[in-house]
Amino acid sequence: MVTGASRFFGGNVVARLAQDQNIERILAVDTMTPGRDLQRRMGRAEYIRADIRNPLIRKVIGGNEVDTVVHASMVAHPPAGGGRAVMKDLNVLGAMQLLAVCQKSPSVRRVVVRSTSAVYGCSAKDPAKFTEEMSARTPPSGWFARDMIEIEGFVRGLGRRRPDIATAILRLAPIVGPRLAGRGVQYLRSPVAPTVFGRDARLQLLHEEDAIAAMAHAARHAPGGTYNIAGDGALALSQAIRRAGRIELPVPWIVFRTAGRALMGPIMRDFTSEQLDYFHFGCGLDTTRMRTELGFVPRWTTVQAFDDFIGGAASRPVIDPAWIDAAEHKLLGLLGAGTGAHS
After folding, report:
1. HSE-up of 134 (CA within 13 Å, CB side)?
2. Would you give the distance in Å from CA 150 to the centre of its chain?
3. What phi and psi values does residue 14 have, to the nearest 5 degrees?
4. For a FRET experiment, which of 197, 220, 306, 343 has its CA 20 to 30 Å from that of 291?
5. Alpha carbon distance 43, 82 (integer Å)
6. CA distance between the termini of the chain
7. Using one digit for the tens of pLDDT, what is the confidence trace for 300-321?
8. Is residue 209 helix, strand or coil?
């Protein structure tokens, strides 16, 4: 059973699992009906309109003898027409009810929960790479990160009470790609990209296809535990701006949070606290456990995922990145020639 099936992420996880003929049945659960295209790609999956906050979700799990639950239904922003209370109700109370039902259902043997690297927070005290055992050096202030920290606690509690259930938490790096990109990278579509003066955040990204593949892989094979999921390598924010052909505008942090958001219009106006902090410091993830214990290897590196996002955005560069690369190579050639002349 996969929750959040009407949204891009949950629906595509369902579609990926539906291609595996070793899976007997797939239940796609959500309060809203998936779009026509998404339903077509879901194939043989059975859609069930249900609310995980309602105790009746017990009938869906128990009545169908569900053995694996993939909880992909997370809300990163308050929904339209709702505030923080609605967001917390959907995230925290929904997960609490769902996991309580899993605990009481004898058929359940694996629970996979989508989380986020935002739980590590972002600060100047951060290590180069967070391992799964580490926690935030500075507690995150964003609503979404705090919700996910609380939900992860519920998952670990389920694992203690039902050790026969493999409870897996996947902490996904910021997701980018041609079809789906977090608002945190959308601002690179603007001609001018404000940055924090004196900082060059280190970005580690995850391609949308790898995010879907990781959840589908975990649904079939994940042992219990927490796993960082991210593409190999990292990309400095200044490099990302250059690769996107944008103009960097360094401003003080206080200006970035205020005037910078006004300059970017609706793109940065909707930024969460997590996203503002991410572009201040960035976040690096150690993915050793992802490879050795989960057995998952992303197809895209961070740079490849970012380039695919930029290509899919069909954005016209203000400055051609190829021209910048050519100028750099020419300058390096001149410097090399000069060094050789003096040696």
Report:
1. 21
2. 17
3. -60, -45
4. 306
5. 33
6. 69
7. 999 999 999 888 654 544 444 5
8. helix
pLDDT above 80 for 338: no
Nearest to 32 by CA among 15, 8, 16: 8
Q: Can you read off the two tokens belonging to residue 142?
A: 């964003």
Structure tokens at 183: 């608002």
Ordered DSSP codes for 137-170: SS---SHHHHHHHHHHHHHHHHHHH-TTSEEEEE
How does pLDDT run across 112-154, given as a tens digit for each residue? 999 999 999 988 888 999 999 999 888 888 889 999 999 999 9
CB 269 within 8 A of CB 226: no
H or E element: which one contains 206? strand 206-207
CB 225 within 8 A of CB 313: no
Residue 192 half-sphere exposure, CB side, CA atoms within 13 Å? 11
Helices (H), the chain: 8-18, 36-42, 57-63, 84-88, 94-104, 143-161, 183-186, 208-221, 237-243, 253-257, 259-263, 266-269, 273-281, 288-289, 302-313, 321-342
How far apart are the C-alpha atoms of 46 and 211, rounded to whole Å? 22
Task: Choose among 237, 249, 245, 238: nearest CA to 319.
Answer: 245
pLDDT over 80 (residue 30): yes
Strand partners, 69: 111
Could you give the CA distance from residue 157 to residue 306 in angstroms, rounded to a whole number? 36
Neighbours of 195 (CB within 10 A): 20
DSSP state letter for 300: S
Task: Give the whole-angstrom CA distance, residue 167 versus residue 256.
Answer: 39
The whole-angstrom distance between residue 11's C-alpha and the CA centroid of its chain comes to 15
- Contact at 8 Å (CB) between 313 and 267? no
In the predicted structure, residue 166 carries a pLDDT above the cut 50:
yes
Q: Whole-structure pTM over 0.90, yes or no?
A: no
pLDDT tens for each residue of 35-81: 999 999 999 999 999 999 998 999 999 999 999 999 999 988 887 77
